[in-house]
């Protein structure tokens, strides 16, 4: 500690900081450091949350777009291919060789409470199914979608040895409704929506409504409590061991797909 003596009249000696002044300085420094750490932690949590939400948005958009692209061709039939099979929404199990493709079902196989969606179309040489497998001969192309674990799977029928591929992850719920035109007037428009199990072979399906509930899979801050979620015709309860019981950041995605290949004479 430096000490200056009074060598001139009227000058006061300076003997450095007192202990109290040093303690105050240390306290202020600690408070500033704590504030900086808190600010960094808050910004980091905000960044992680934003990244998680972005990932959920991308997964949701990709998943719905993936299924929608395939579904727009549902029911396509080409008489020049010489196929006897009728294309459309598959309401009964479809057998192709040694493989059985389950029919569309409300709360179908896989995670309970999730729907299974199966549909078909005519495919020519060079076409591909939902897995990307290419046809070597004209064939009825069947695609089936279901939830297994927390992933949305699809399985095509071009490769008989396949067990399906994962489309997206973080899926809490997958729901489907069929839009039926029950008022023939020459204009395709859904007048009511039915659950998959309620669709009849004679129903004129003009739209399909798809719903997904996704949760962020990254390690991000979660809400203090979960909330009930309504997705299409299904209420997901936050209690009783339901799919949204555990608190998490979730988003709901819904889209309506217009079916291009309809029986125009019956619309």
From TrEMBL:
Pfam families: N_methyl, PilW. The chain crosses the membrane at residues 20-40. Keywords: Membrane, Transmembrane, Transmembrane helix. GO terms for biological process: type IV pilus assembly. This is Prepilin-type N-terminal cleavage/methylation domain-containing protein.
